[in-house]
Amino acid sequence: MDKWYIIISGLLLLLAAVLFIRLIQYKRQMRIFAAKLQKRLHGGVDQEIHVEYFDRDIVALAKALNDYSDQIKERNRALEQDRTRLKNVIAGISHDFRTPLTAVKGYLQLMKKGGRIDDRDMEYLDIAIAKTEYLRVLSDAFFEVSYAEAKDEAIDIRNIDVARTLTALVLEQYEWIQESGIQAAFDIPESVVWVQSNEKVLNRIFTNFFSNARKYADTRISVCLQQDADGVSITFTNDIEADNEIDIDHVFDAFYRGNSRREEGAGLGLYVVKCLADKLGHVVSAEVKDKQFSVMLRIK
User: Fold this and answer.
1) Smallest Cα–Cα separation from 293: which of 174, 213, 230?
2) N or C: which end of the chain has fewer CB within 10 A?
């Protein structure tokens, strides 16, 4: 009896030892598996989880996760292809719209200059010209969006004088500023201000800033370029109508136009700015204070 007791006790101890060792191995495999899974979460779905020498249940779980990730990759690839095709279609349509819209507007303006139209028809003609111009602006905006959202276009970053770039663009705005009666103030250094950026893309950003100010400024605008130890800030500020409430959390959303009485534009300008700034690695922000709306581009 004592002999069998010793044998059974020994077998139970051996079994307990085996189970304990197996448990330790299993816990170690689970820690490694969790680390691999965490690495994959940070590294993207392209990194597979390899567990060839693990417990078969863990191997089965890893295979299921890899299969699921492969499905996600395929869906993401298909979505990206659809997105690219849609952007190309929008860009193509926007481009094709430009020529006929310009021609239509030209013919309407010729009719207006002809002078053989009564006052009522002249009013209708002015509306038609305005709507044609709106369609042209909308077409240009969609074309800008397709460019801004394109991920496959490499941007050449180099040393540029942002003060010179901004000054040249300010001079181009002189005519409409004078005609509108808007009070304008510009604080741009005459000295060279070097930044790492792309002049063409910066011009697009500044042009959209001016376009936004032109549409929504009530009586005045200002442009300020400041340099400090950490980088350069370019700030565009304009006052807004008393009843224009701006949701600052959504000004960079596509199609956001606030609640201004003015119906100009498609609400895409600042969205384009945000896309382009992200491409350049710059930071764009906005604020409203005392009915003054400001957008700032920060270049480090």
Assistant:
1) 213
2) N
